[in-house]
Design a protein that fits this description.
The complex is a heterodimer of chains A (389) and B (254). With 389 residues, chain A is of the alpha+beta class. Helix content of chain A is 53%, strand content 19%. A six-stranded mixed β-barrel of chain A has the order 2-3-8-5-7-6, surrounded by four helices. In chain A, α1 (2-37) packs antiparallel against α12. Chain B has 254 residues and is α/β, with parallel strands linked by helices. Chain B has helices spanning 57-64, 87-97, 113-125, 130-142, 158-170, 188-205, 216-220, 246-253; strands at residues 14-23, 31-41, 46-50, 72-77, 80-81, 98-101, 176-180, 208-212, 224-229, 232-237. The relative contact order of chain B is 0.18. In chain B, α6 links the parallel β7 (176-180) and β8. In chain B, strands 6-7-8-3-9-10 form a six-stranded mixed β-sheet, sandwiched between helices. A four-stranded antiparallel β-sheet of chain B has the order 2-1-4-5, covered by helices on one side. The longest helix of chain B is centred in the last third of the chain and has 18 residues, at 188-205. Classes of the chains: A alpha+beta (389), B alpha/beta (254). Chain A binds chain B through residues 289-290, 292-301, 303, 382-384, 387-388, and chain B through 58, 62, 65, 67-68, 87-88, 91-92, 94-95, 100, 102, 106, 108, 119-120, 123-124, 168.
């Protein structure tokens, strides 16, 4: 009876751990996908323009009174970016490199005029960074000369459809594009500002012939971004920014989440261990006589020890099996009943088999660990006293 | 110091020499409950151990059964000294040489009669071979429980439970069976029946028995009686004739 209760208890603990782990993993994956989907993992750009005060000869008698005003940042090209691209591509951590010219501007159609972020890219390369083709919601991604791709909400605001023309103004230069596709970058604000044009078009609009204002990098492992960014910044005189730095708040939020998940898991595991241990302690006391008889009939201390370790392991294993089932039910309930305002699931969570196995293995191990102290006690019972009581 | 009627034979199944047992050794309340006991039991003997409550019978039986350790003295089973052996060695010796019958049957309630009887084999070998299972069936049949092998202890009468316990003690054919008040919990009829069974198995298997009992009528049916009073052996010899308490016999002799 008490064994049954503790198995259910272990199951509840395992279910909570598995469910929380799956939920947080799903949440984080979803958040990172949404955030990084439209972002490069590392962005490389020229160093900021700075005023360098003239150096005066230092002596005790002279004092420097220099006031500097920060300089306005004009669009500048990365020096020698054509040589840099193959160098970066050769790095094993780097999955893709895309040169980009970006600038602020206005999109105009009739009376309407919207501020935009103009992005000049090579379609093939840019696709590898943000998966542009997969984000097309209307039309077909194509960037010939005089063609452009618009964010979905921008097209809505301007009232344009695929095939229409849109005027672009940047710093006094005018051009017009034919819209070939509408894209959804995942964030409404981005969708409202994005205009993607061929690299050459942007170069002429911004006034940087042959230039690139930044290089976008996609990495094989997103979590290596910070390390690689620091490394690149040391090696070359460029401004290198990792996605972690660009989204520092998000990263710290994710970290806080991971830490709290770990704490919850740890506490639940401790509760499970204590529960199993207390049940086994009671069981050792209740079964003193049987233990004594087994010892009288020739059971070694090791055999008695193993019986109780096995009991702990079995409780842990049965509890985890039940708990994983329970977690699957919880996750099913979450994906079916918790929905966003649009009626679709908020995000998809699944219990990875590896995670389920890990949790189950840890719980079983906890069961065996919990049994160590009671089992030792059982093994060391004095058989004569155990029988008499 | 104790009144030893027969001198200790040099050889025997088990030989105790100067065995002492104290509790709370080193503490102010140290108490010696067995005072330098010496006796031996040979193969095939059927010995009763009697004495008033608190005389140390159970302690002596536990020491003989290797469930408790003596404080001083020498105890040899088949020539091997037991004093000072570690737990593993004592366990091995229990497996090979000893069977136990307790006052309460002490069967495991979750197992049926046959499984209880195969337990010693399971403990010794780690598994039960078909041959051992056959052997257990044969012993159960010999104690008259051929029809109740798949019954659990709760479904058996007190006498039947005790017969299962005897079968369990005998299944591995140990040279010595120790019985602690095997009939203490039974009515007279069952008591006689269980005692008769022990005598029958003794006759069939030539197993030595050491039986602790309160019942002078049962003691009278044993081949030899050891009487313990206050931790001293006061009588060792054939049972007095019925109606004549062992104490009286001892008084006459000394």
């Amino acid at each position: 009876m008490q064994t049954l209760l503790i198995i259910v208890g272990v199951a509840a603990g395992v279910a909570v751990v598995a469910y929380i782990s799956a939920l947080i993993a799903g949440l984080q994956r979803n958040t990172i996908e949404k955030t990084l989907g439209a972002q490069a993992h590392i962005t490389l750009s020229p160093l900021d323009d700075m005023v360098l005060p003239a150096r005066a000869p230092s002596s005790a008698a002279t004092r420097e009174l220099v006031q500097t005003q920060p300089r306005a940042q004009r669009p500048r090209s990365i020096g020698n970016w054509q040589l840099l691209v193959p160098l970066l591509e050769a790095m094993p951590q780097v999955a893709a490199v895309s040169p980009m010219v970006s600038a602020a501007g206005l999109a105009e159609r009739g009376e309407a005029s919207k501020s935009i972020t103009l992005v000049g890219v090579d379609l093939e390369r840019y696709d590898r960074i943000v998966g542009l083709r997969a984000r097309v919601v209307q039309g077909a991604a194509r960037l010939g000369p005089g063609e452009g791709i618009l964010g979905r909400d921008l097209a809505n605001d301007l009232g344009v459809r695929v095939g229409d023309r849109v005027g672009i103004v940047t710093g006094g230069v005018n051009d017009s594009l034919r819209v070939t596709a509408l894209v959804d970058m995942g964030v409404r604000d981005v969708n409202r500002r994005t205009v993607i044009v061929p690299l050459r078009t942007a170069q002429s609009l911004v006034g940087l012939p042959g230039g690139a204002t930044s290089l976008d990098l996609t990495l094989v492992d997103i979590w290596s971004a910070q390390v690689l960014a620091d490394d690149l910044a040391m090696r070359w005189p460029y401004k290198v920014e990792s996605w972690q730095k660009a989204n520092a708040q998000l990263v710290s939020a994710l970290n806080a989440q991971s830490v709290s998940t770990a704490v919850i898991r740890g506490v639940v595991m401790i509760v499970v261990v204590l529960g199993i241990a207390s049940v086994l302690v009671v069981s050792v006391v209740q079964k003193r006589r049987e233990i004594g008889i087994l010892r009288a009939m020739g059971a070694t201390q090791g055999q008695v020890l193993r019986i109780f370790l096995l009991q702990g392991g079995i409780v842990g294993a049965l509890g985890s099996a039940l708990g994983v089932l329970l977690a699957v039910v919880l996750i099913w309930a979450f994906t079916h009943f918790v929905r966003g305002s649009d009626g679709l699931p908020l995000f998809n969570i699944t219990l990875a088999p590896v995670l389920a196995l890990q949790v189950a293995a840890i719980a079983t191990l906890c069961g065996v660990l919990a049994a160590v102290a009671p089992a030792r006690r059982a093994a060391q019972l004095d058989p004569a006293q155990a029988i008499r009581l | 110091m104790s009144a030893q009627v027969h001198p200790t034979p040099p050889a025997g199944l088990l030989v105790l020499d100067g065995v002492r047992k104290s509790y709370n050794v080193g503490l102010p309340n140290e108490a010696e409950v067995l005072h330098s006991l010496s006796f031996s039991i040979g193969r095939g003997e059927f010995v009763a151990l009697i004495g008033p409550s608190g005389s140390g019978k159970s302690t002596l039986l536990n020491i003989v059964g290797l469930l408790e350790r003596m404080t001083a003295g020498s105890y040899r089973i088949e020539g091997e000294e037991m004093h000072g052996l570690d737990d593993a060695a004592l366990t091995r010796r229990r497996r090979s040489s000893l069977g136990f019958v307790f006052q309460f049957h002490h069967l495991l309630p979750a197992f049926n009669a046959l499984e209880n009887v195969t337990l010693p084999a399971l403990m010794r070998e780690g598994r039960v071979t078909p041959a051992q299972r056959e052997r257990a069936r044969a012993v159960l049949a010999a104690v008259g429980l051929g029809a109740a092998m798949d019954k659990r202890p709760g479904e058996l009468s007190g006498g039947m439970q005790q017969r299962v316990a005897i079968a369990r003690a005998l299944v591995l054919e140990p040279p010595l069976v120790l019985a602690d008040e095997p009939t203490g919990n039974l009515d007279t009829a069952s008591s006689n029946e269980v005692f008769a069974l022990m005598r029958k198995m003794h006759a069939e298997l030539n197993t030595s028995f050491l039986v602790v009992t309160h019942d002078p009528r049962l003691a009278a049916r044993c081949d030899r009686v050891l009487e313990l009073v206050d931790g001293q052996l006061v009588h060792d010899g054939p049972p007095a004739s019925s109606g004549d308490p062992p104490q009286a016999a001892h008084a006459q002799r000394s």
